[in-house]
Amino acid sequence: MYNVKSKKATEFIDHQEILDTLAYADANKDNEALIDQIIEKAKCRKGLTHREASVLLACQSEEKNEEIYRLAEQIKKDFYGNRIVMFAPLYLSNYCINGCTYCPYHMKNKHIPRKKLTQEEIRREVIALQDMGHKRLALEAGEDPKNNPIEYILESIKTIYSIKHKNGAIRRVNVNIAATTVENYRKLKEAGIGTYILFQETYHKDSYLELHPTGPKHDYDYHTEAMDRAMEGGIDDVGLGVLFGLDKYRYEFAGLLMHAEHLEAAFGVGPHTISVPRLRDADDIDASAFTNGIDDDIFAKIVACIRIAVPYTGMIVSTRESQKCRERVLHLGISQVSGGSKTSVGGYAEAEPEDECSAQFDVSDTRTLDEIVKWLMDMDYLPSFCTACYREGRTGDRFMELCKKQQIQNCCHPNALLTLKEYLVDYASPATKALGDALIEKEILNVPNEKARAVVQEHLKAIENGTGR
Ligand code: SAM
């Protein structure tokens, strides 16, 4: 049996245990008494084990699945209200020495233009992002110790935080770079990053080794234990994810939840976020050549089951997904979305010429940030540009503690209203502003206490007349 308290993810995310979990889920997928029992447990909002959640994922009964969707939606509302946090990716460099067979940045791709932003180009990209209204970025880079050493990443973070332009300022830089050393994680922490994000790609070791045939990423153990080292280096907000389409989704789902359980058991804090990317076509990558792709129904079920299994973990869906698909999963558990994204190196300040495309994958949702903000509000969601938790030091276990007590809403709701107001005043189109102002007026009534409400109202007024930031 695997060791729950082990400091190493590889000892805990055990292949045999995942196979046993899948067999258990298969054997019980029509066991309505057990499914009811698991749903009842899920209603306590304390999460589920990977085995329990895998039974729900395998469940075929339409009636029970409807119950699962309803519960996921309710849990999402309880923990996150109607807030949706906004962010954009910023690709720094697509130089890469790995051989990932699904990613166009793989080393053997000789025709994709290789680009690396200079600090001046980063400034231009960030100003363009600030002019859209973004406050949170996810930095992306290929793995290449010569072209993209940690010093380059650290310098880029420093540049980004230093850029003040009109009313814009990037307040939170999350980082998605290759697995690295404890020492480098410590440096990233010192540089003031928000979440360190690293997708496992696949938890299936044999597939992993085949999909990453060459380069440092080939080392499954080093990659899988990255979050352990990140925690050791002092980063307490880490973001997990698998790339759905690489291996069988039920295997990945169990592995992902085991990874979350391991972090909680070993470090006392689960993942801050879980991302659910699906494989997309890209430069020399044909996603249909990978035979484990999942359809929108299974994708929605995965999101709902993750929501139920780890209620306190944020969930991210990117512009890999279409508007229609994003609409569906927002209801079931997503708490963060990207908007107005470019997956190329450069492209925010100036569009890339078509024959120079350096994009990592094709974006499905190509709308502008303003369109995304309006779309969310049309559905009664409250777009939030908030980063207050991080600035107030509410990260890691302190954040989880608040979140588990469903307290995070008391801080988040007013912060969401204020940052949305900033967005409306500084960047929104007239139609978005009108809709947003009406939404804020309605939502302010949900600030629980009267005194707090009055303070928020005062701040809102100050933002409107340009005196409060
Ligand atoms: N170099 C870092 C690493 O190795 O983890 C950062 C990775 S990359 C910039 C971000 C993520 O994009 C990858 O982890 C992978 O899951 C995803 N990705 C790669 N190719 C993709 C594709 N064809 N479609 C969708 N997502 C893809």
Would you mind describing this structure in some detail?
Its cofactor is [4Fe-4S] cluster. This is [FeFe] hydrogenase H-cluster radical SAM maturase HydG. Pfam families: BATS, Radical_SAM. InterPro entries: Aldolase_TIM, BATS_dom, FeFe-hyd_mat_HydG, rSAM, rSAM_sf, ThiH/NoCL/HydG-like. Strands 1, 2, 3, 4, 5, 6, 7, 8 and 9 form a 9-stranded parallel sheet that branches. The chain starts with 8 loop residues before the first helix and ends in a 5-residue tail after the last helix. It is globular, with a radius of gyration of 21 Å. The relative contact order is 0.14. With 469 residues, it is of the alpha/beta class. It binds S-adenosylmethionine. S-adenosylmethionine binds next to loops.
Strand and helix layout:
Layout: H1 9-12, H2 15-27, H3 32-43, H4 50-58, H5 62-80, E1 83-93, H6 119-132, E2 136-141, H7 150-162, E3 172-176, H8 182-190, E4 196-197, H9 205-211, H10 220-224, H11 226-232, E5 238-241, H12 249-267, E6 273-275, H13 296-309, E7 314-317, H14 323-332, E8 336-338, H15 369-378, E9 382-384, H16 388-391, H17 396-404, H18 408-426, H19 430-443, H20 450-464
Parallel strand pairs: 1-2, 1-8, 1-9, 2-3, 4-5, 5-6, 6-7, 7-8
Helix pairs in contact: 2-4, 2-12, 3-5, 4-12, 4-13, 5-13, 6-7, 13-14, 15-19, 18-19, 18-20
Residues 102-103, 140, 142-143, 176-178, 198-199, 201, 217, 243, 277, 279-280, 282, 285, 320, 360-361 line the site of S-adenosylmethionine.
